[in-house]
Amino acid sequence: MKRKQRIVIGLSGGVDSAVAAWLLQREGHEVIGVFMKNWEDDDTDEYCTSRQDLVDAAAVADVIGIEIEAVNFAREYRERVFADFLNDYQAGRTPNPDVLCNSEIKFNAFLDHALSLGAERIATGHYAQLRRTEDGVLLLKAVDRAKDQTYFLHRLDQRQLDRTLFPIGHLTKSAVRTIAREQRIPTYAKKDSTGICFIGERPFRDFLARYLPKTAGPIETPDGRVVGRHQGLAYYTLGQRQGLGIGGKRGTDESAWFVAGKDLARNVLTVVQGHDDPRLHAQTLEVDAMHWIGNRPPVSGSRLAAKIRYRMADAPCRLDRIDDDCWRAGFDAPQWAPAPGQYLVVYDGDVCLGGGVITATAMADAPAAAVG
């Protein structure tokens, strides 16, 4: 951008958004920082870092020399993200609230707030890139593939992307930290945040138990042999190995138990032994609520690539259209433990095309069947 603009950037208190703000200011833009507070139900220092993050964001703004304000989006987050999160877990699915947080809060509520401040664009410290064309804005993978966050951004639309900048998408993480250190940005060595923002470092099951009732039931093998008791189907996900309480030799995938299915009607958790058990793999996935970033779905039968988790390589697949919002992805090779509720995100090379919610899975050479 050659023309100088008013840009409102989300300052999280981390190093990535700090360097993004510094880069924009160096280009001569009028940069305003906003710290978003999205959770306050039990905002204690024991598990939630928001207080310290705000202090860090303010320190960054002071060093860079920009204004900063704190905005509370906790109500919007509870209504637009957390409610769906609880509903999905109660229905036996495995949601990813970070995807909805981006589409509903960071690039929706935050965008509207920034526009009310007279911003022409917003910016964040996400690792992603944009390419503006005559046909619209393309979402591209970041240069640093290990940090690429397009998986979490795949539900953004053209209005959101057209108003957005990702200033560090062309940099590696090490380069970002180097810039921060050279510019004496106080968060240059701050550890990256991980996990779901409102859970923090606390045990996931303990957190979920505050909102969903514990309904214990049997843990069974596929042939119906009872091997233990679960605390509630909502607390487990397909492929889970830890926390089952039914033994298995430590450090050996061959004898370890893995969650392979949930029977909500019978309140039964099904487990199998061994990482390579075929019941943990699926080659065909059905996906609903499909969102295409460019508003133009690919031709049915297209050969593309997709992934079902953030930290996994793109896997070749064929994408077939079932109806307007429902598609079927047939992978060249079986995928390990895809879970209903997770997102399947589709790529054409470096371009993120969009994605949808997994609703059904099937093993190789088997008809698709709903899970959970």
Describe what you observe in this structure.
With 372 residues, the protein is α+β, with helices and mostly antiparallel strands. The protein folds into three domains: 6-182, HUPs (Rossmann fold, 3-Layer(aba) Sandwich), CATH 3.40.50; 213-273, SH3 type barrels, CATH 2.30.30.280; 279-370, Translation factors (Elongation Factor Tu (Ef-tu), domain 3), CATH 2.40.30. It has eight helices and 18 strands. A six-stranded antiparallel beta barrel has the order 12-15-14-13-16-17. It has a five-stranded parallel β-sheet with strand order 3-2-1-4-7, sandwiched between helices. A four-stranded mixed β-sheet has the order 9-8-11-10, with no helix packed on it. Strand 5 and strand 6 form a beta hairpin. It is globular and about 65 Å long. Mean pLDDT is 91; it is low at 366-372.
